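Sample entry (140 residues):
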Amino acid sequence: MTDAFTKMFQQMMASSQEMVRAFNPALENAQMPGLDKGFAGGFPTMPADMMEMWFGKTFNREGLDAKTRLMLTLAALTVLGAQAEPQIRLTVRHLIETGATEREIAEVIWQMSMFGGLPAMQKALEIAQSVFAETREKDA
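Predicted structure, serialized as tokens:
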């Protein structure tokens, strides 16, 4: 495995742990045997080249900055609708950390109304607004 893949896998695991805490705080201390060993322990049936391609090169490619990648992720998750609520919440948090404004985030979601429909857009905006409120409360 390359260093880039190892770094991406560690970032993916950290992000997954954050999502687990958001889904169910009781799972925060759950043991996941094998996943701490990376590819060999966690995904023994997936070829190393596939893991490297998806997680080592796809998400760490040059050409787009982190904010743009997260905006695209938010767009895709918005179109998925309510089934992606935890992922939308996490992506909005990460976007705020990259310096995205509330207006930029809302515009991305609004743009997706043409592709995902008004209910998906409305749900994503509600989620984003709750994250904005949490962020303001935390910063106060």
